[in-house]
Amino acid sequence: MYLLDTNIISDLARNPSGRTARRLSEVDPDKVASSVVVAAEVWFGVEKNPSFRSRARTESFMRTVRVLELRPEVAKVYGRVRAQLSASGKTLGPNDMLIAAHALSLDATLITDDAAAFAQVPGLKMENWLRDAPADRE
Fold first, then answer.
1. Class of the 2-134 domain?
2. Which residues are 110's β-sheet partners?
């Protein structure tokens, strides 16, 4: 399963024929989803900038993408990963921490353009469809 991050959905809205959109078209739609945390960030961006040129494309995409709720097992993964990062002196923003925990709980590959932030999360699988550069982290 692929879990789309906020920056990937934003790119799809800005560049509907771009590299990310082409890569998405090669994937089984049943294997693509996003997190409710990402959806909240996307909707915040739409509301924050009402004149946003790609608002209609963002709204259209958000009607088609499957948005997954946070299940109780995400909380346990979140606690474990946050404790690991804290013990090693690392930090991740609260939304990114939830997104990472959600991806880990689903054994999903996070599709993101923010590999630098997420790379510190042990075991998180990542790909960057904007740069076509897999960034798996074990």
1. alpha beta
2. 3, 126
Secondary structure class of 67 (helix, strand, coil): strand
Question: What are the angstrom distances between the C-alpha of 131 and each of 5, 53, 55, 56, 128?
Answer: 14, 23, 23, 25, 6
pTM for the structure as a whole: 0.89
- Domain ranges in the chain? 2-134
Q: Which two tokens stand for residue 7?
A: 């920056």
Is the model's pLDDT at 87 over the cut of 90?
Answer: yes
Element (H, E) at 125: strand 125-128
Question: Taking a C-beta distance cutoff of 8 angstroms, is the pair 99, 92 a contact?
Answer: no
Q: What is the DSSP string of 83-123?
A: HHHHHTT----HHHHHHHHHHHHHTPEEE-S-HHHHTTSTT
User: What is the spatial distance between Cα 35 and Cα 98, in angstroms, rounded to a whole number?
Assistant: 9
In angstroms, what is the C-alpha Rg of the chain? 15
Whole-number pLDDT of residue 137:
37
